[in-house]
Specification:
Arc Repressor Mutant, subunit A, five-stranded parallel beta sheet, alpha/beta, Rossmann fold, 231 residues
């Protein structure tokens, strides 16, 4: 999922960009309001994080401009302006949340997850899919089974969605990396394996006899599909 971050302070901007990238989001970071509007038009992000006090065009103005054409993309304000009137103005302009600085990285990620979970995307984006006994909800970044509910990162959702779409096929490591990381990204050799290992732990998939994420040595990974008796 794509996140647009507009923040004029370079230290804060870089810190947010690193934290969200590590969570698996595709981040576009800009330093002023004019760049934010241009990036929103060009990149069509899934969520926008806006500082209020920015050069050339402030966050309130950017929010108003986005909302004049788009009522669905979640907008979060990140600001040191803590007066109640600032929060009220931001929410009345159509923002989904207001995060006061300083904030922790975990809080920011939790707020972003919450906004994405509440957001209304297209029918295709909201559509869930099944893997074994799990039902995966891509827009909500989670999966559930019986009474169990787990959180997923955007990259984990991408991996599961790809293997589910190509059920029964062996999906090569290159195909997974190109689709889930991007064709221009060159991860360390163990990056994909580490993600698969974490996914297996979350899904309770036995690494020695996996039902969901099967390793095909020297090639890639495969999801064989539901077994007889699986819902």
């Amino acid at each position: 999922m794509k996140i647009l971050v507009a923040e004029d302070d370079p230290v804060t901007r870089e810190s947010i960009e690193v934290a969200l990238t590590r969570e698996g989001f595709n981040v576009f970071a800009v330093e002023n309001g004019v760049q934010a509007v241009a990036a929103w038009k060009a990149k069509k992000p899934d969520l926008v994080c806006l500082d209020i006090m920015m050069p050339e065009q402030d966050g309130f103005s950017v929010c108003k401009e986005i909302r004049s054409k788009d009522n669905e993309t979640p907008i979060l304000f990140l600001s040191a302006k803590n007066e109640e009137i600032d929060v009220v103005v931001g929410l009345e302009l159509g923002a989904d949340d207001f995060i006061r600085k300083p904030f922790g990285k975990r809080e920011l990620i939790a707020r972003i997850r919450g906004a994405l979970r509440r957001s209304k995307g297209s029918a295709a984006e909201r559509k869930s899919f099944e893997m074994g006994d799990w039902v995966v909800f891509p827009r909500e970044l989670r999966a559930e089974r019986d009474n169990s509910d787990i959180e997923l990162t955007p990259r984990e959702v991408s991996i599961l969605a790809l293997l589910s779409r190509r059920m029964g096929e062996v999906v090569s490591r290159d195909d997974i990396l190109n689709e889930c990381w991007g064709i221009d990204y060159y991860p360390e050799s163990r990056t994909l394996d580490q993600h698969i290992s974490k996914l297996r732990k979350k899904l309770g998939d036995d690494p020695d006899a996996p039902d969901l994420l099967e390793t095909v040595r020297g090639v890639g990974y495969r999801y064989r599909g539901p077994k007889t008796g699986s819902r």
